[in-house]
Write a structure and sequence with these properties.
Largest sheet: 7 strands, mixed
CATH architecture of the largest domain: 3-Layer(aba) Sandwich
CATH topology of the largest domain: Rossmann fold
Number of domains: 2
Number of helices: 12
CATH superfamily of the largest domain: Vaccinia Virus protein VP39
Low-confidence stretches: 1-8
CATH class of the largest domain: Alpha Beta
Oligomer: single chain
Number of strands: 7
Structural class: alpha/beta
Mean pLDDT: 90
Helix content: 40-55%
């Protein structure tokens, strides 16, 4: 029996499995699970789990499953979430400052923007958004919220645009893109657990099982790449030692020495795939 974790690309996987195996779709967004259920209504071999992929070991344990044949992690925000302005992910439309992938959680973008200290905001925007004007943006956010709460995406975009000098606004995409990414990552805790999630996913595979991970920005890709390298059992002993004492053991091998990038046709069909990178690891 084949079993796959990950709700992304569920239709293609379900068709491949047909009735020979089991597809497990894990997503923290109940709306995404509802869409998947509708798309896959013709298939009886699918389980839908409202949870976080960070909890993959617990999810499998609750399903009385020890190991699986393959796992696909499709990281980041989905097109559905971006296109739905009421979710607050997009800087292109007006909406509430929400950005929660799981609408049952308490922490929202509105809380982050209106309650985090200036230093915290600047750090988040710099580290998660790689935004060079993070301090200016954080300062202006804090100045504005003294007058009134920042409650909409449009207002946040306005503050960000005023924080970035005109000469730096061109040829870098939308001025709010990096800040919105940073706040979204903070709200959904997307980076901190990722390394451990990769290791736990590898541990959940059967021998010769494969873990495929699609990332969409450098922070995700870096965490996945580092986890894959460590999972190969790379020795971390100081070079001056005559022999290995760290006891690192290999969990498997990296199939993709370099990440697989979308083709020209794929990018024409879906412009949001341009930043996608696919890395694959095989369990031994």
């Amino acid at each position: 029996m084949e079993q796959y974790g990950g709700a992304g690309h569920s239709l293609q996987i379900a068709k491949r499995l047909s009735n020979k195996g089991l597809l497990i779709g894990i997503d923290r967004d109940k709306d995404a699970l509802s869409v998947a259920q509708d798309r896959l209504k013709e298939f009886s071999n699918v389980k839908y789990v409202h949870d976080n992929h960070d909890n993959i070991k617990e999810v499998l344990e609750n399903l009385s499953i020890d190991k699986v044949d393959g796992i696909l992690l499709d990281l980041g925000v989905s097109s559905y979430q971006i296109d739905e302005n009421t979710r607050g992910f997009t800087y292109m439309q007006d909406g509430p400052l929400d950005m929660r992938m799981d609408k049952t959680q308490e922490l929202t973008a509105e809380y982050v923007v209106n309650n985090y200290k200036e230093e915290e905001l600047a750090k988040i925007i710099y580290e998660y958004g790689e935004e060079r004007f993070s301090r200016r943006i954080a300062k202006n956010i804090c100045e504005y919220r003294k007058k009134e709460k920042i409650a909409t995406t449009t207002k946040l975009v306005e503050i960000i645009e005023k924080s970035i000098p005109k000469q730096h606004r061109e040829n870098q995409g939308h001025t709010a893109k990096r800040t919105f990414q940073a706040i979204r990552i903070e709200v959904n805790n997307e980076i901190k657990p990722l390394y451990n999630t990769v290791i736990k996913s590898i541990d959940s595979l059967k021998k010769q099982g494969r873990l495929c991970i699609i990332t969409f920005h450098s922070l995700e890709d870096r965490a996945v790449k580092n986890a894959f390298i460590d999972a190969t059992g790379k020795c971390i002993c100081p070079p001056e030692l005559p022999y290995c004492v760290c006891g690192k053991k290999s969990l498997g091998k990296i199939i993709t020495k370099k990440p697989i990038l979308p083709t020209e046709d794929e990018m024409k069909e879906n412009s949001r795939s341009k930043s996608a990178k696919l890395r694959v690891f095989e369990k031994i």
